[in-house]
Amino acid sequence: MKLAQILVVINIAIPSLANAQSEPAKPKYFNQNVADSNPLRTEQARELDEYIQTIAADRSRFHQLFQPDYSTTQAFEKSAAPLRSAFCESIGYPPPGKRPTKAATFQQIGEDSIGTYYRAMFPILPGVHSEGIYIVPKSAKGKTPLIISMHGGGGSPEVALFNGGANYNDMVRGAVKHGYLVYAPQHLFRADGYPKEIRRQIDDRMRLVGTSITAVEIAKITYALDELIQRPEVDSNRIGMVGLSYGGYYAQVTPAIDTRIKVSVSSCYFGVQEGRYVQNELSVPTDFRFMNRMTLFNDADLVALICPRAHQIQAGSKDKASHREMGKSIEPRSAAYYKKLKLQDRFEHVVFDGGHEFDDRSAWAFVKKHL
């Protein structure tokens, strides 16, 4: 090769070699600073937060599920069936498990001038009883109306009945004094030898097997009713229910499911969870956090499952505002169901002069009127 040709080759090769040496080597894998994508995660959180708020404010699902027919009371009840079915599904009612065939037992535990007292036990689920106090008034003659009297959180039938009844006043004995049979069931709030959080723990575990403490405790009432209405002294067509605080919750959700309950009084409960939800969604206790609790099954609309049967809501003027004010604001939605059926007298929202307690005067007047 001539010298000139060699020089040309060298001149071409040297720049190519220089360029090759100046370019960085390509990495084996693509990488990026992880923090660069943090805004995407922040946006995801913002989107989901706004989505929850949008769904919570959207009433269209409720109106699609429940299309009330006000032409007659029978038509209204039929139109409420899809909402009742959805509510039962939401809480896991009826609870799974074969119902026992063992008979209920009634053991006399006492007697006084107004009635005879029994410890009643009703097998309702595998290994599970509904247990409470059953009272037959001395004044009972023939078929007699029955009142379910439901204690509140941390309470018991004994607390509501004995030694003056505490803030329950005459919620149990008052029924007996008015000539009603009474079943006062026990629900789970505390138990010797178990953790303080036993109620929450049991509820959490129940949800993992397809039910909830709300469903089981409703069953402790409704399944006991199945047995009680077979007793010769019970008038199966005249059943009422009263309850204070947590018992007020059950005096709303139980008649929402069991239409045999013809009149109910929910004291010092209505609207409490709705108020908590507005302040802080997660301040709502876990046993009230069943599916769609605040979209399809809020307190005001659950009353649609009680209507056209009689229902009274009580709130104390001296109770905490959280147990009264939200209830006052949502009460018109409940009242509207009765008003459109021209049955206004079957619904009452009473703010009485008192605290977190059962108002005997208004309750028993309402029960007497409608039972």
TrEMBL record:
Keywords: Signal. The keyword Cell membrane does not apply. Residues 165-271 form the Dienelactone hydrolase domain. It comes from the Bacteria. The keyword Cytoplasm does not apply. Residues 1-20 form the signal peptide. One of its GO terms (molecular function) is hydrolase activity. This is Dienelactone hydrolase domain-containing protein. It comes from Gimesia aquarii.
